[in-house]
Amino acid sequence: MELELFRVDYNIVGITSKSCLKLLPYTKIGEQQKVVVADNEGILQVFAVKKEDIQLQFKTLPGHKITSVQLSGEPGTMSDKIFISSENEVRGFTKKGKLFLSFDSNMTEPITSMYVLGNDLFLCGKHTYNHYKDCKDIGSYLCGDCIVDVIALHINKTHRLVALIACEGRMIRALEHARVTLSMEVESSPTVLHIYEDNDTKLVIFGTVDGRIGLLDIEKTQSFNKWIIQDNRFSSAISCIDSYKMVQNEHQNIIVGRQDGNIEVYSINLGDNETSALLHTTNCNESVTSLCCGIVGEANYDEILVATYTGRIFGLTTQTVERNITTDSKNYYFTTESAQKIVKLKNEVEELQMRVGKEREKYQASTHSYMEEMSAIPLLSIRDSMVQSKQDASYVLTLEVPTAIDNVLLQSNVPVDLLDVEKNSAVVSFSEAEPHNGNFLLATYRCQVNTNRLELKIRTIEGQYGTLQAYVTPIIQPKCCQVRQFEIKPLSMHFRVHSIEKKRPYNLLAIKGLFSLAEIHSWVFQCIPEVPEKPQFVDTTTTLFFQSTFLGTHLECNFQKGEAKFASDNISTISIIREFLTKETTKKKIKIDISIVVNDDSINHILKLIDPKLQSHAKLSKEVLLLDALHELGVNDTETVQALSTKYQVLLEKEKELRAEFSNQPAYLDRLYGIITDLYIDYYKFKGVSVKSRIPKLLTILDNYDYKNLLLFFRPDFEMLD
Amino acid sequence: MDKMIRPIFTLELNYKIVPGLVTIGKYDGTHPCLTAATTADKVLIHSPHRRSSNVTGRVVWSESNREIATLSVNQALSALVAGKFLPNEDKDILFIGTPTHVLAYHVHDNRDVFYKECTDGVKAMAIGHFGESKNPLVFIGGNSSVHGLNYEGEEVFWTAVGDIVTSIALVDYYKNGVNELIVSSEDYTIRVYKGDKVINENVETEVVTGLASLPESRFAYSVSNGTVGVYEQEVRLWRVKSKNFAISMHYYDLLGQGSAQLITGWSNGKIDCRSIKTGEVLFKDSLKHSIAGIVDADYRSIGKTDVICLTVEGEVRGYTTTKCLGENGSASEQETVRDLLSQKQQLLLELKQYENNTRYNEESGKGQEDMGVIPASTRLQIGIATNDESPKPHVEIFISTNNDTIIRAIVIFAEGIFKGETNIVHPPRTKLGSNLSVPLLLPKDIPIDIHIKAFVGYPNSIQYHVFELTRQLPRFSMYSLKEGKDKHNDSYVEFKINERLQRICIWINQNFLLPTDIEYDCGAYLEIYLKCLRDNSDLVLYFDASGKTNFYTSNLSLAADLIQSLATFCKVESLESKAHFPEDEKRLTTLMEVLSEIQDSRLRLGTDIADKLGQIRNLVVRAEDSRINALEEMCKYYDELNIINKELINGYNIRLSNYTEGRESMKSINSIIQKASRLRVGPNAANMIGHCRTAIKNNNIEMLIKVIQNGEP
To answer: Which domains does chain A carry?
Structure first.
């Protein structure tokens, strides 16, 4: 690591949301900055750190959850005015804590994100965007997608004011005067926007749910430019970005906080084609909600101030802690300031313990009284997410609680596989499944001490849909547990794309009937992931494109009132949609006409797609077998190895990678076989033939795989051209 | 900042190592050599201090790495241990265990000390002083027994274990300077032997895979479900469970605390250093591959030992005592602050819970069912009983609430009775109610602690209250009272115990799950008819006022368990009994006959091989001869050779099945002996085993049965 940072803990507050932390600007270079932090209990506080002690400037009373904190000021002055948003209200405070603005936005939805630029105020709810100038509404926009973040900036050349909103449907929209002027498609759902200012250039960068950071080009090409931080494996979602010169360099560094608790510092050079270089990484085991860079703990030392979901505020400082180690004995000793701090904290904890003890007794007593008292435990706030991991076609489920988790009970009414996650140290135990009781999966995760966050990996089977429930029990007294439900959709292995290849052989499914747009939209929403929650009213027909994570097959959906068309190169996908829609329409007693056009050539196409996967897997298993055989020979010495043919030598060299690859996909082949079997059954189902009895024969063909034989088995009358 | 202990040396052996088969020996008396078994069934000896390379013989020095030598034994390796063994010699002897033999090899002199057949196999070995012996003994654990051999290869110790031995350790259990033997076996048990006598037995929840002796009469154990724990004599100090498996355990003072810590190597490549007393993790590091073994030795010739970790891929890392952490502990100021802050956070959160509760009660009247508000007086009632009416009799746990709240789900944590560690009952939404019953099938007669967590709320709640209960199921839970009186079973065990019948009643009530407590008023005897829920077999307990006691059951091991439990309860030091188990006796007779047949045929087969080998040699010479002289003849000879080869393979398969059968019968015999010995308590049990051994050696079936019946010939 080129950069060494040391963790210093400052304070704890309530649970925080994203963009809840800011640093007030300094008046003198190198001066310590004050920390502004707001939490879900509605408390906004500003504090400074003096000699390791917290000096509170001011603190508001608890109220509604604060969703965003922004700093701004009159143009030309310092940005030291604090704006907070909660429910649908915006309040402004001076740095001394004086309330100077209380503004009711009259928005129909609670505010989820806010941006303040001079006299312009931008507020976004889940689906609405509002622009206010001097607290006067000057425009709004209704978005079908879910809006996750908003920023605004003046374009360098034209000095026009442009607002950008990041939408969950893989889209970043630019608005001028509340009209969409630009829709920029990105590959993955954005989570956060940030303005990167470096040497008079202003650029917009964004983070995504799959852990990448991309650059937008607003001025020239007006579209997505390139990925600047990209990891090939799945990494956790980006939750916040900041830019700062952590290392004295020409360009600003990018500092990223992730949902899995990783804090990373990158050096980038945008002019170059070269990608970023990682300078530092730390993991704090709690998801990071917000981070700011500046000078906090000690004058003249740069640091990254971090707020985590559970409300911890800590810094990663460039100041070394080595001053606390005397050179001769190499022992740690406590400096007087920190000793005082520790004593103070200890006293606080003791006092709290006393109070909790009393309350505990009171609660115990209430359970023994015959009065009609109730036992009400406030709802735990649990942060959860279930994100598709495209690399291995699975879902990553994360659960985070503000206190340590005792255990998690997982229950599912559809068959799913739980995969092992390296990061997760909890002891998993499977209980016998009872399909007759709707329990296809019953498992407990017993967490090790101090686990606030649990990450699980789940593999679903397309066509099997239902609900996965997680009962989360934290360790806190009085013990309670909360259920979280996750829908597993019929086409769970699909994700949205912006376009598809038109040339593929497509199978078509068309339905007609007396259904409304809302109805068909909700069916599609229930069937496929990443469909916007609300239908877009602008167009008469909605067209959506999807791609399968496992096979890469495409799906196109076209629907409007009374009519829907689906096209996919995979017959199984069409079959799943048909089954689902028939079920849903029967439930609502809506009559529909279904017509299906099967394209026989799509079979060749799919088998061609699977072919390389089967081939490479067969090769891999053969190589692993060979490796075992080679080890039987006991070749370990270099001289004996050299006596082997080059093929075997290469094999031995690559052994580790091969074995890792092999063990990473234990059920890979089974999955492929499953897909082919489904395809076979579905293909013939559309032809009105039941082929259940011929499945064993299909499996024997697969075991001695050959593309031509397999194709012939699927289409006995098909004539090979070559 | 994080405590860092960096390895002081690392090196690559470039051999793949079998996990667990790692030891270290000073074969020349001064320089330690890391010794391990490779996956190619060779013994690898790493001698970084080798001066001369004149050692020849069995050991083959590698040409690429001058420090590595390999030794082939042409058999699969199953155990490896090195240590001082010969009297008046300070050079370590290497013991190599294979499925059929044990080789005591003097590496420095390149000679075999002895090469002995072990029909029972070699599964684990340990060297050390034991009991009265002046010289170290080597203990060999096999499929069902433990042998102790002295330096001449003579058997000086033997005991039956009952299942495959997984690990052996020698520990000074009573801190009196004399070692006791600790043996773990696949029946989840750790047994402690003082001389021939079993002085303690601990039953774990899964197969115990490893043992390691620790200072101060402690020992560490690891279980195949990922548990590691430490015992101090009979008391378990701590245990922890993780999702990986402990491969190797070793004690070493890594942190310079003056006393040793337990270093554990895990299957995922982690090593951790824990306090022996509390199990607290003091340091951890991670290697790329699974650990194969951990040993300590003065590997740098500096007069102080280092702890050496070896992975399955042949990576070696050495760590040494690192003092920089200081005596006062451990945590740096930042860590202290962090800990205090999290404590504060936790307390604040709890306080908030209570405050909200009070506020809710003050403003009562809001029916928020989904938040899981339940009457404060909600209680959980639990009943445990045997259920012999269902088609599959079981122990039933019945849980209900005392009002209209429902139980959403129940999680039962218990070890050893489920597939995993939990059993979950999650009824479908339509069948939710205020009570639930959970059937339990207990595979073994051991007392089990069960921890029940019940999620209580209303059908539409999204948050539930969790009620936690802990219960202990008595040892003999799987037996229920039986109506009526049947004829007594003809298998029984009879003994005399001097205890009042009232006390016996207490024992019964404590150890069985009966609907009402048994009471003894008066009368000449107490008789209880029971039925086993597993196989519906009968069990009759008969206690005469005179002290004569009979247990009627056809299950030998159940009788043994009952006697052991009763003896512990009454604190009986010594107990002799008469046993009559015709079925087991009959089985024993057949097994003994099978065994002697096998031994006969083994001899015959042996001569057959020698014969065939002669023929082969002859044919090969002839065939090659005719290659030069008469080419047409060659085919004929090779055809013949092929036939003989096939015969040899056939013969091998016969011998293999013979061997397996022999091993299985030996195991069954030993298991019966072991159970029979548990019908007795104290010295009687040890004596009985001795007598049995003599009877088996002399192949005297009558005597063996007599010993089992009466405890003596």
So the answer is: 6-324 (2.130.10.10), 383-488 (2.60.40), 494-597 (3.30.310.200), 601-714 (no CATH)
